[in-house]
Amino acid sequence: MYSLVLNALSNNNLRHRRRLPLTHPLCSICSESTNTTTTTTNQNGPSIDKSRRSKGRPHKRNSFQGSYDINRLTAAHPALHPHIIIQAHSGRQTVNWSNPESVRVLNTALLVADYGIHPQYADLLPMGALFPPVPGRADYVHHMADLLQRSNNDGNIPLGRQVVGVDIGTGASCIYPILATSIYGWRMIASEIDPTSIRSARDIVTANALEELIDVRTQERSSRIFDGVLHQGEVVDFTMCNPPFYTSKGAFQAENARKLRGLSSGMSNNFGGNDNELWCNGGEVSFVKNMIRESELYQDKCLWFTSLVSRKDNLPKIESIMNIKGKSRRKSGRRHMSIGSGHKSSTIIMWSFLDEKQRQEWGARRWS
Fold first, then answer.
1. How far is Cα 348 from Cα 50, in angstroms, rounded to an integer?
2. What string of DSSP letters covers 152-185?
3. Are strands 236-241 and 302-309 parallel, antiparallel or unpaired?
4. Is 55 helix (H, G, I), strand (E, B) or coil?
5. End-to-end CA, the chain
6. Distance CA 111, CA 123 (A)
7. Positions of the chain with pLDDT under 50
8. Tell me: the pLDDT tens digits for 42-60?
9. Rounded CA gap, 105 and 68, in Å?
10. pTM here?
């Protein structure tokens, strides 16, 4: 059985640091848009949440709540100070969002101030590597915590090393694992195929003394997602992924040129990255479809499989694979839950082969 959750997730989000010692049809769907929740069940297809939509906000546990405390960030990371400018119309402190280095240093300051990450984080990234906007990455981690909380019998977010997650394609930045360990103390497996990115991720782990919590593993086969990363019999609680979006290098270059033209309107120039971080044959649709197919082989080894989807019009293409009848899938209902979306939004797609009772049993067995 697939239990699918769709979460429209703002990419402009962050959380206060805490260092802590599918069915045919699909089952559950959640898409974020407002602070209200509407749940419906339909055996024949997804029910649509018609609740009124409002401007989205960062996750409630996100330390970034729409504005930057520049004084606090410069105190934590003095290297940010030379990049501060004053807005002419408001007199407020900010950075030049069209300057890649300014954006890079700002995000480093966020990691230092809110998550205790080593200030040399950015220096450890290889030239041209994707430097992730920290707020949105942190929001994904917080939504993973909410998802696990629903399967925890005591109603609390499960914390510490007993929770194990997998970041598929961690990239040179290793951003999701370092946030997950910093905020919730989880153990993380970080998979990657590119040798340069693997070296960078391991350097970041070592610089932050996280070797006991983050295991960077090499994926030797580009056609595989979990196979070759998860050890035989290994059990994990969730997977997460920010898949390559573009279908080819040419498609990325065309979009990159369009974004560069938009810088005059204040667009942030934080869309660099290495080839393997940005594109693959078939783009995110093909990548996530392959992930769903392969996840069936690990249906009793993982509570929740998840991935980001950058474009809403890709969702029907991805969901189509979940509507093909299969012997191993049982029928259940669907659910849409609106909880917030922002100016830049993505979707978290989540699926589980376990029903609600089995998910509760999973939590009791692993986190009690």
1. 19
2. -TTSSPP-STT-EEEEET-TTTTHHHHHHHHHH-
3. parallel
4. strand
5. 25
6. 13
7. 7-55, 246, 248-249, 252-253, 263-271, 273, 275, 277-280, 325-342
8. 333 322 222 233 346 788 8
9. 13
10. 0.79
